[in-house]
Structures are given as C-alpha cells and as structure tokens.
Design a protein that fits this description.
A hairpin with a 2-residue loop joins strand 1 and strand 2. This protein has a single domain, classed as Alpha-Beta Complex (paralog of FGE (formylglycine-generating enzyme)), CATH 3.90.1580. It is α+β, with helices and mostly antiparallel strands and 233 residues long. It is globular and about 50 Å long. The chain contains three helices and twelve strands; from the N terminus they run E-E-E-E-E-H-H-E-H-E-E-E-E-E-E.
Length: 233
C-alpha cells in the first residue's frame, strides 16, 4: 500500500519524513485469545474521522539536535532514535518545530498510534501472529538506526521494537462502546508508551500492548518518540 509522503526541511541538511495516514475505523485492543495479552487491552471500535500524518521513522538524534541544539541520548548515533527525553521535553521540541514550520506537529494519540501500527491488520503484530528477530529490533543488544528493518503496510518503520514511543495520552482504562477520535483523559500519572523496545521480549512490542511511561518528566535510554501532524488545510 503506497501512501502519500511529505518531507520537511529542518535545515543543516536534515529533513523529517511524514506519511499520510487515511481516516478509518478499526478494532483497538486485542482479542482474549491473543497470547500474552493484558487485561487493559479490551477491544472496542474506534473511528478516526480525519486523516493525519505520521512520522515515517522515530525522531532521530540529528533531527532533535537540529531543533534543540544538543543531543541528550546516552547511546549516540546520528540516525539512531533520540532517547533520554521526557514527555515534557518532547513538547518543547514540538513547540520549536511548529514555530519554524507551518505547524500542526504533535505527539500521536494512543488510538492514532495503534491504527498506524496495525496498518489494516488484526494480528498481534503488523507482520502477522508472531515477530521474529529479523522483523524488528527486539531482544537485541543496542538501539539501531531508524529504518533498519522492513516497514509495515503503511510504510512506517520500527513501529515494533527499537525504542518505546511516547503518545499524547495519559494512561487510563479504555472507554466502552464505539469511540470517535479518542484522546484519553485530561490528566493522570503516567503517559502511554507503545511499540516495545530493544532488549525486551516480542510480546511487549505487540500492536495492542500498552505500557506506562512514567510521569511527564520521566526519561529512559529505551524511550523515544514519533511525531504526528494534524492536517491544517
């Protein structure tokens, strides 16, 4: 499935690639039959009424440095995902990014993240019912450059493994019924992170798996993020 892609010039020969994700309806969460599922993955129907852009890759260290002027990551690599940044740090990055562009950049909602990760699939992973080590950076020794593995059907890379990806939402139990454009609760204690990470077993990288990323100032060497962008025209 080939979707529209756009590229944002950040200066210093650094660019940001985004993929247009179509509006649609999907079943969020996992069936009770899914191996290693958690109780907080109750299935419910979600409709995303508007298309949006999603980062083709996790935000890299060179992209972060182009906007923020320094690289906080413990494990350095120009094309590695930026890590050791908090949810609040991401908001500062986004604010600066929106000032030098036409705006609309933000963290994805949890529903947008899972919809983009699944890319039309209903299996535990976007690649099927299981995830092999050559499908994603899991059970590995170190973070790798973004795009080191094959993309999902939407053309998004590393939705499984490499680093956890922060979402906009606070963690909470899922609402019931049919939900339209969910954004999570207005406040909470932990922000959601998705996608699993290096050195962790594959089940944590399932499309439906939810993890508490800590408070808004929490950082970790396995935690990064991917941008979303609202279509403003």
């Amino acid at each position: 499935m080939k979707l529209e892609e756009v590229k944002e010039d950040l200066g210093q020969d650094v660019s940001l690639e985004m993929v247009l994700i179509p509006a649609g309806t999907f079943v969020m969460g996992s069936p009770e039959s899914e191996e290693d599922r958690n109780d907080d993955e109750v299935q419910h129907l979600v409709t995303l009424t508007k298309p949006y852009y999603m980062g083709k890759y996790e935000v890299t260290q060179e992209q972060w440095e182009a906007i923020m002027g320094k690289n906080p990551s413990q494990i350095k690599g120009t094309n590695f995902p930026v890590t050791d940044v908090s949810w609040n740090d991401c908001q500062k990055f986004i604010k600066k990014l929106n000032k030098i562009t036409e705006g609309g950049y933000r963290l994805p909602t949890e529903a947008e993240w899972e919809y983009a990760c699944r890319a039309g699939t209903t299996t535990a992973y976007s690649f099927g019912g299981s995830l092999a080590e050559n499908d994603a950076n899991i059970i590995g020794e170190r973070i790798k450059s973004v795009g080191s593995y094959k993309p999902n059907a939407f053309g998004l890379y590393d939705m499984h493994g490499n680093v956890f990806e922060m979402c906009e939402d606070w963690y909470a139990e899922y609402p019931t019924g049919v939900i339209i454009d969910p954004k999570g609760p207005a406040k909470g204690k932990n922000h959601i992170v998705r996608g699993g990470a290096v050195r962790l077993i594959s089940c944590i990288a399932r499309s439906s798996n939810r993890e508490k990323g800590g408070g808004p100032n929490q950082t970790d060497y396995t935690m990064g993020f991917r941008l979303a962008r609202t279509i403003t025209t």
